[in-house]
Amino acid sequence: MTTADPTTNFSDDVTNRPGKIRNRALWTLQILLGLFFIIASGGPKLVMPNALTDNAPENLTIPLGLLIFIGVVEVAGGIGLMVPRLSALAAAGLSVLTVLAAGTQAFLVGKPLMGIFPLVLAAIFAWIAYERRATITDLRNSLAR
Question: In terms of C-beta density within 10 A (0-12 exposed, 13-18 middle, 19 or more buried), how is residue 8 classed?
Answer without folding.
Answer: exposed
